[in-house]
Protein backbone atom coordinates (compact mmCIF):
# COMPACT_ATOMS: atom_id res chain seq x y z
CA UNK A 1 0.00 0.00 0.00
CA UNK A 2 1.29 3.44 -0.88
CA UNK A 3 0.43 6.17 1.63
CA UNK A 4 0.58 9.89 0.89
CA UNK A 5 -0.16 12.77 3.26
CA UNK A 6 -1.37 16.25 2.41
CA UNK A 7 -1.70 19.06 4.96
CA UNK A 8 -4.97 20.91 4.49
CA UNK A 9 -5.10 24.71 4.41
CA UNK A 10 -6.21 26.58 7.57
CA UNK A 11 -5.87 25.54 11.18
CA UNK A 12 -8.32 26.08 13.99
CA UNK A 13 -7.23 26.37 17.59
CA UNK A 14 -3.78 24.97 16.87
CA UNK A 15 -5.20 21.79 15.26
CA UNK A 16 -3.68 20.81 11.91
CA UNK A 17 -5.77 18.80 9.42
CA UNK A 18 -4.33 16.19 7.09
CA UNK A 19 -5.65 14.20 4.20
CA UNK A 20 -4.24 10.67 4.14
CA UNK A 21 -4.50 8.69 0.91
CA UNK A 22 -4.01 4.90 0.94
CA UNK A 23 -3.56 3.42 -2.48
CA UNK A 24 -3.49 -0.32 -3.26
CA UNK A 25 -0.59 -0.62 -5.73
CA UNK A 26 -0.29 -4.42 -5.78
CA UNK A 27 -1.63 -4.60 -9.35
CA UNK A 28 0.90 -1.97 -10.49
CA UNK A 29 3.69 -3.92 -8.76
CA UNK A 30 2.51 -7.15 -10.40
CA UNK A 31 2.53 -5.51 -13.84
CA UNK A 32 6.00 -4.06 -13.17
CA UNK A 33 7.28 -7.49 -12.19
CA UNK A 34 5.71 -9.07 -15.29
CA UNK A 35 7.35 -6.45 -17.50
CA UNK A 36 10.79 -6.95 -16.00
CA UNK A 37 10.44 -10.77 -16.16
CA UNK A 38 9.50 -10.39 -19.81
CA UNK A 39 12.54 -8.22 -20.60
CA UNK A 40 14.80 -10.70 -18.75
CA UNK A 41 13.30 -13.66 -20.66
CA UNK A 42 13.52 -11.88 -24.02
CA UNK A 43 17.17 -10.94 -23.39
CA UNK A 44 17.99 -14.49 -22.37
CA UNK A 45 16.30 -15.93 -25.48
CA UNK A 46 18.26 -13.55 -27.71
CA UNK A 47 21.53 -14.05 -25.89
CA UNK A 48 21.55 -17.84 -26.47
CA UNK A 49 21.74 -17.73 -30.29
CA UNK A 50 24.10 -14.72 -30.10
CA UNK A 51 26.52 -16.66 -27.88
CA UNK A 52 26.37 -19.57 -30.29
CA UNK A 53 27.05 -17.28 -33.28
CA UNK A 54 30.02 -15.72 -31.50
CA UNK A 55 31.40 -19.18 -30.68
CA UNK A 56 31.19 -20.35 -34.29
CA UNK A 57 32.73 -17.14 -35.66
CA UNK A 58 35.69 -17.57 -33.27
CA UNK A 59 36.09 -21.23 -34.28
CA UNK A 60 36.03 -20.28 -37.94
CA UNK A 61 38.66 -17.61 -37.37
CA UNK A 62 40.84 -20.09 -35.46
CA UNK A 63 40.82 -23.90 -35.46
CA UNK A 64 38.50 -24.34 -38.47
CA UNK A 65 40.13 -21.67 -40.64
CA UNK A 66 41.54 -24.14 -43.17
CA UNK A 67 38.87 -26.84 -42.98
CA UNK A 68 36.28 -26.16 -45.71
CA UNK A 69 34.03 -29.06 -44.59
CA UNK A 70 33.72 -27.78 -41.00
CA UNK A 71 33.28 -24.21 -42.21
CA UNK A 72 30.38 -25.31 -44.44
CA UNK A 73 28.69 -27.11 -41.53
CA UNK A 74 29.23 -24.19 -39.14
CA UNK A 75 27.81 -21.71 -41.66
CA UNK A 76 24.62 -23.81 -41.80
CA UNK A 77 24.31 -23.74 -38.00
CA UNK A 78 25.01 -19.99 -37.94
CA UNK A 79 22.22 -19.40 -40.48
CA UNK A 80 19.82 -21.41 -38.27
CA UNK A 81 20.75 -19.29 -35.25
CA UNK A 82 20.34 -16.03 -37.19
CA UNK A 83 16.91 -17.25 -38.40
CA UNK A 84 15.96 -18.07 -34.83
CA UNK A 85 16.87 -14.55 -33.73
CA UNK A 86 14.83 -13.03 -36.50
CA UNK A 87 11.76 -15.18 -35.61
CA UNK A 88 12.09 -13.99 -32.03
CA UNK A 89 12.38 -10.32 -33.02
CA UNK A 90 9.34 -10.68 -35.35
CA UNK A 91 7.27 -12.23 -32.54
CA UNK A 92 8.37 -9.60 -30.02
CA UNK A 93 7.38 -6.86 -32.46
CA UNK A 94 4.00 -8.54 -33.07
CA UNK A 95 3.33 -8.62 -29.33
CA UNK A 96 4.29 -5.00 -28.84
CA UNK A 97 2.09 -3.86 -31.78
CA UNK A 98 -0.81 -5.87 -30.36
CA UNK A 99 -0.41 -4.23 -26.95
CA UNK A 100 -0.68 -0.81 -28.59
CA UNK A 101 -3.89 -1.86 -30.37
CA UNK A 102 -5.38 -3.72 -27.39
CA UNK A 103 -8.23 -1.24 -26.88
CA UNK A 104 -9.22 -0.84 -30.51
CA UNK A 105 -11.92 -3.25 -31.69
CA UNK A 106 -11.31 -4.66 -35.20
CA UNK A 107 -13.83 -3.39 -37.74
CA UNK A 108 -13.46 -5.42 -40.96
CA UNK A 109 -16.02 -8.11 -41.99
CA UNK A 110 -13.95 -11.24 -42.62
CA UNK A 111 -15.28 -14.49 -44.10
CA UNK A 112 -13.38 -17.22 -42.25
CA UNK A 113 -14.08 -20.00 -44.78
CA UNK A 114 -11.71 -18.87 -47.58
CA UNK A 115 -9.28 -17.46 -45.02
CA UNK A 116 -8.80 -20.83 -43.31
CA UNK A 117 -8.63 -22.58 -46.69
CA UNK A 118 -5.81 -20.20 -47.63
CA UNK A 119 -3.97 -20.77 -44.31
CA UNK A 120 -4.10 -24.56 -44.81
CA UNK A 121 -2.87 -24.22 -48.43
CA UNK A 122 0.09 -22.19 -47.24
CA UNK A 123 0.92 -24.79 -44.57
CA UNK A 124 0.61 -27.79 -46.93
CA UNK A 125 4.39 -27.86 -47.69
CA UNK A 126 5.21 -27.93 -43.94
CA UNK A 127 2.65 -30.72 -43.36
CA UNK A 128 4.18 -32.64 -46.29
CA UNK A 129 7.69 -32.24 -44.86
CA UNK A 130 6.48 -33.54 -41.50
CA UNK A 131 4.55 -36.38 -43.17
CA UNK A 132 1.27 -35.12 -41.73
CA UNK A 133 -2.06 -35.34 -43.57
CA UNK A 134 -4.07 -32.11 -43.18
CA UNK A 135 -7.83 -32.88 -43.29
CA UNK A 136 -10.19 -29.97 -43.82
CA UNK A 137 -13.87 -29.77 -42.97
CA UNK A 138 -15.09 -26.24 -43.71
CA UNK A 139 -18.66 -24.90 -43.73
CA UNK A 140 -20.26 -24.51 -47.19
CA UNK A 141 -21.75 -21.09 -46.49
CA UNK A 142 -19.74 -17.97 -45.58
CA UNK A 143 -19.03 -17.51 -41.86
CA UNK A 144 -18.21 -13.88 -41.16
CA UNK A 145 -16.80 -12.19 -38.08
CA UNK A 146 -15.72 -8.64 -37.32
CA UNK A 147 -11.98 -8.95 -37.38
CA UNK A 148 -8.54 -8.06 -38.59
CA UNK A 149 -7.65 -10.32 -41.52
CA UNK A 150 -3.87 -10.45 -40.95
CA UNK A 151 -4.24 -11.10 -37.23
CA UNK A 152 -6.73 -13.91 -37.82
CA UNK A 153 -4.35 -15.50 -40.34
CA UNK A 154 -1.67 -15.35 -37.63
CA UNK A 155 -3.97 -17.14 -35.14
CA UNK A 156 -4.96 -19.99 -37.46
CA UNK A 157 -1.43 -20.38 -38.84
CA UNK A 158 -0.03 -20.66 -35.35
CA UNK A 159 -2.55 -23.25 -34.18
CA UNK A 160 -2.38 -25.42 -37.32
CA UNK A 161 1.42 -25.19 -37.42
CA UNK A 162 1.64 -26.24 -33.75
CA UNK A 163 -0.67 -29.21 -34.39
CA UNK A 164 1.55 -30.33 -37.29
CA UNK A 165 4.83 -29.80 -35.38
CA UNK A 166 3.90 -31.12 -31.95
CA UNK A 167 1.34 -33.70 -33.11
CA UNK A 168 3.55 -34.94 -35.96
CA UNK A 169 3.68 -38.53 -34.75
CA UNK A 170 -0.15 -38.81 -34.94
CA UNK A 171 0.14 -38.32 -38.75
CA UNK A 172 -3.32 -36.71 -39.09
CA UNK A 173 -4.38 -33.14 -38.28
CA UNK A 174 -8.06 -32.25 -38.63
CA UNK A 175 -9.11 -28.64 -39.17
CA UNK A 176 -12.76 -27.68 -38.98
CA UNK A 177 -14.87 -24.53 -39.11
CA UNK A 178 -18.58 -24.67 -38.40
CA UNK A 179 -21.46 -22.70 -37.01
CA UNK A 180 -22.62 -24.31 -33.80
CA UNK A 181 -26.23 -23.48 -32.86
CA UNK A 182 -25.26 -23.10 -29.18
CA UNK A 183 -21.69 -21.78 -29.27
CA UNK A 184 -21.65 -19.77 -32.50
CA UNK A 185 -18.74 -19.85 -34.93
CA UNK A 186 -16.13 -22.42 -33.93
CA UNK A 187 -12.74 -23.20 -35.42
CA UNK A 188 -10.98 -26.31 -34.24
CA UNK A 189 -7.69 -28.03 -34.93
CA UNK A 190 -7.16 -31.52 -33.64
CA UNK A 191 -4.01 -33.64 -33.63
CA UNK A 192 -3.32 -37.19 -32.55
CA UNK A 193 0.06 -36.39 -31.02
CA UNK A 194 1.39 -37.09 -27.52
CA UNK A 195 -0.97 -34.60 -25.79
CA UNK A 196 -0.12 -32.01 -23.13
CA UNK A 197 0.05 -32.87 -19.39
CA UNK A 198 -2.91 -31.19 -17.61
CA UNK A 199 -0.72 -29.04 -15.34
CA UNK A 200 0.78 -27.25 -18.36
CA UNK A 201 -2.49 -26.45 -20.14
CA UNK A 202 -3.48 -23.31 -18.15
CA UNK A 203 -0.01 -21.80 -18.72
CA UNK A 204 0.35 -22.41 -22.47
CA UNK A 205 -0.51 -18.79 -23.42
CA UNK A 206 2.11 -17.28 -21.10
CA UNK A 207 5.00 -15.63 -22.89
CA UNK A 208 7.96 -17.99 -23.37
CA UNK A 209 6.10 -20.88 -21.75
CA UNK A 210 6.98 -24.23 -23.29
CA UNK A 211 6.09 -27.72 -22.23
CA UNK A 212 9.49 -28.94 -23.35
CA UNK A 213 12.17 -26.33 -24.14
CA UNK A 214 14.38 -28.56 -26.28
CA UNK A 215 11.42 -29.91 -28.24
CA UNK A 216 10.20 -26.37 -28.93
CA UNK A 217 13.70 -25.20 -30.01
CA UNK A 218 14.22 -28.15 -32.35
CA UNK A 219 10.80 -27.40 -33.87
CA UNK A 220 11.77 -23.77 -34.44
CA UNK A 221 9.48 -22.41 -31.71
CA UNK A 222 9.91 -19.09 -29.90
CA UNK A 223 7.51 -19.80 -27.02
CA UNK A 224 5.55 -16.68 -28.02
CA UNK A 225 3.09 -18.16 -30.54
CA UNK A 226 0.19 -18.88 -28.17
CA UNK A 227 0.75 -15.62 -26.24
CA UNK A 228 0.25 -13.80 -29.55
CA UNK A 229 -2.82 -15.96 -30.30
CA UNK A 230 -4.35 -15.06 -26.94
CA UNK A 231 -3.75 -11.31 -27.42
CA UNK A 232 -5.37 -11.36 -30.85
CA UNK A 233 -8.35 -13.40 -29.66
CA UNK A 234 -8.96 -11.09 -26.69
CA UNK A 235 -9.10 -8.14 -29.12
CA UNK A 236 -11.61 -10.14 -31.18
CA UNK A 237 -13.67 -11.09 -28.09
CA UNK A 238 -13.03 -14.74 -28.92
CA UNK A 239 -11.97 -17.57 -26.60
CA UNK A 240 -9.32 -20.25 -26.88
CA UNK A 241 -10.28 -23.63 -25.42
CA UNK A 242 -7.64 -26.35 -25.07
CA UNK A 243 -8.52 -30.00 -24.57
CA UNK A 244 -5.75 -32.53 -24.39
CA UNK A 245 -5.34 -36.13 -23.41
CA UNK A 246 -2.00 -37.84 -22.91
CA UNK A 247 -1.35 -40.41 -25.60
CA UNK A 248 -4.43 -39.35 -27.60
CA UNK A 249 -3.74 -35.82 -28.78
CA UNK A 250 -4.84 -32.21 -28.41
CA UNK A 251 -7.63 -30.02 -29.68
CA UNK A 252 -7.42 -26.22 -29.81
CA UNK A 253 -10.80 -24.54 -30.35
CA UNK A 254 -11.46 -20.87 -31.06
CA UNK A 255 -15.00 -19.77 -30.24
CA UNK A 256 -16.11 -16.42 -31.71
P1 LIG B 1 6.38 -22.40 -29.62
O1 LIG B 1 6.88 -21.22 -30.38
O2 LIG B 1 7.38 -22.98 -28.70
O3 LIG B 1 5.71 -23.40 -30.50
P2 LIG B 1 3.75 -21.70 -28.56
O4 LIG B 1 3.42 -20.55 -27.68
O5 LIG B 1 3.13 -21.75 -29.92
O6 LIG B 1 5.33 -21.74 -28.62
O7 LIG B 1 3.39 -23.04 -27.79
C1 LIG B 1 3.80 -23.19 -26.44
C2 LIG B 1 4.10 -24.64 -26.13
O8 LIG B 1 2.88 -25.39 -26.13
C3 LIG B 1 4.98 -25.33 -27.17
O9 LIG B 1 6.35 -25.11 -26.88
C4 LIG B 1 4.58 -26.79 -27.00
O10 LIG B 1 5.33 -27.35 -25.93
C5 LIG B 1 3.11 -26.72 -26.54
N1 LIG B 1 2.14 -27.03 -27.62
C6 LIG B 1 1.50 -26.14 -28.42
N2 LIG B 1 0.67 -26.77 -29.26
C7 LIG B 1 0.77 -28.09 -28.99
C8 LIG B 1 0.15 -29.28 -29.52
N3 LIG B 1 -0.76 -29.23 -30.52
N4 LIG B 1 0.50 -30.48 -28.96
C9 LIG B 1 1.40 -30.55 -27.97
N5 LIG B 1 2.03 -29.46 -27.43
C10 LIG B 1 1.72 -28.25 -27.93
TrEMBL record:
<keyword id="KW-1133">Transmembrane helix</keyword>
<keyword id="KW-0812">Transmembrane</keyword>
<feature type="domain" description="Histidine kinase">
    <location>
        <begin position="41"/>
        <end position="256"/>
    </location>
</feature>
<keyword id="KW-0472">Membrane</keyword>
<keyword id="KW-1003">Cell membrane</keyword>
<protein>
    <recommendedName>
        <fullName>histidine kinase</fullName>
        <ecNumber>2.7.13.3</ecNumber>
    </recommendedName>
</protein>
<dbReference type="GO" id="GO:0005886">
    <property type="term" value="C:plasma membrane"/>
</dbReference>
<dbReference type="GO" id="GO:0000155">
    <property type="term" value="F:phosphorelay sensor kinase activity"/>
</dbReference>
<keyword id="KW-0597">Phosphoprotein</keyword>
<keyword id="KW-0547">Nucleotide-binding</keyword>
<keyword id="KW-0418">Kinase</keyword>
<keyword id="KW-0902">Two-component regulatory system</keyword>
<dbReference type="GO" id="GO:0005524">
    <property type="term" value="F:ATP binding"/>
</dbReference>
<dbReference type="GO" id="GO:0004721">
    <property type="term" value="F:phosphoprotein phosphatase activity"/>
</dbReference>
<keyword id="KW-0808">Transferase</keyword>
<dbReference type="GO" id="GO:0016036">
    <property type="term" value="P:cellular response to phosphate starvation"/>
</dbReference>
<keyword id="KW-0067">ATP-binding</keyword>
<keyword id="KW-0813">Transport</keyword>
Amino acid sequence: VQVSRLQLEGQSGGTAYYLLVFRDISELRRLDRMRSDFVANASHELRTPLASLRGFIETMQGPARDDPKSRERFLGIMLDQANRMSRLVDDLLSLSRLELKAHMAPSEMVDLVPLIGHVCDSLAPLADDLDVELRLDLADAPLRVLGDRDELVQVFENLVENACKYGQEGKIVEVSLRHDPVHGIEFSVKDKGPGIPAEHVPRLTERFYRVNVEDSRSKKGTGLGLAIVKHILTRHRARLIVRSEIGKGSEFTVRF
